[in-house]
Amino acid sequence: MSNLETAPRETVCGGLGDTAATPVLETYAGREVMLGNTPVRRILPNLGRRLVGAWCFVDHYGPDDIESEPGMAVPPHPHTGLQTVSWLLEGEIRHRDSIGSDQQFCPGELGLMTSGRAISHAEHSPAGHSPLLHGVQLWVALPDRDRFTAPSWEHHAELPALSGRGHHTTVILGEVDGARSPGTTFSPLVGADLAVGSGVTARLPLERDFEHAVLVMSGVVVFDGVQVGPGSMLYLGCGRTELAVHGEVESRVMLLGGEPFEEQIVMWWNFVARSHEEIVAARTEYSSGTGFGVVNAYDGPQLPAPALPPGALKPGGRTR
Fold first, then answer.
1. Which letter does DSSP use for residue 166 in this model?
2. CA distances from 208 to 137, 176, 235, 238, 245 (A)
3. Residues 59-86: pLDDT tens digits?
4. Is 187 contained in some domain?
5. Binding-site residues from annotation
6. Alpha-carbon span 47 to 70, nearest angstrom
């Protein structure tokens, strides 16, 4: 998935100075941006918070009626220094990349791409797709020791799950209550999809040393007396040992968490780096047709890189 903004800003985030070391309750609503012809709600980064553990980018889209529409159509574009995590609630997406991967995946299946040093990929709804498209696209920042690893693609059709009365949890990445995802991770983190029934309170154990957040993908839930609706995220801080979510109606919630990311990163467009100079170099390589490979199976031009903002970035932090 790409950031298709035509004038993206460079953002510095990371480090421990602004991490909430104790439990907090901060609500963040997504801002609407266009991903090609698909409207999405961008949850991270936002004006109040830029990271949750190593999770550095969250888009929530749908449910959209695409029965008579082409659906998602994102041409080849680059990534570096991150992992993309694709998660569907409804619909299908076909992923193709510059290392030869060509995979269609469906709801409940994990699409996990590690960009490492550099990769290009394209995503679109296949012909004969389902009438609805609904999902979440997330990025995970790679730590410095791993950000130049070889690019790779993983598709996991079966994931571990936990069930209780009126609720069901699928572990997307990391571990929840002894259930561990097969997806590759490079820093301690967790991602899980919690389905909770109307009037049901679901409880999950949490790692005390992680910071956590919950994204409501559908329905309405209450956590610690705070009501949260679709497309909004509730940041929970650190120091919690349990997540208790009450469904006002049937709801789907994404749990995100991880050890606070100690390193400062620079994000611009589809690149995660460590300096403005690295961003400039990555853009130059991609625009010159070197370094990021070619998505051979895609019939059409690649996405052009937007212009860099004037001047170099100014240091920031985890929050703004």
1. T
2. 26, 13, 14, 6, 17
3. 999 999 999 999 999 999 999 999 999 9
4. yes
5. 77, 79, 121, 123
6. 32
CATH at 176: 2.60.120.10
Distance CA 302, CA 285 (A): 14
Q: What is the C-alpha to C-alpha distance for residues 13 and 301, in angstroms, rounded to an integer?
A: 32
Domain assignment of residue 299, yes or no: no
Is residue 230 within 8 A of residue 215, CB to CB? The reply is no
DSSP at 80: B
User: Strand 221-223's sheet: what is its strand order?
Assistant: 201-205, 242-247, 221-223, 226-228
pTM of the complete model: 0.93
> Does residue 182 lie in a domain region?
yes
Which residue segment(s) compose the domain that 218 sits in?
18-258
| pLDDT tens for each residue of 255-281 | 999 999 999 999 999 999 999 999 999
Backbone φ and ψ of 159, nearest 5°: -130, 150
Residue 310, domain member (yes or no):
no
Residues placed in the known binding site for Fe cation? 77, 79, 121, 123
- Counting the structural domains of the chain, the total is 1
Beta bridge partners of 193: 170, 254
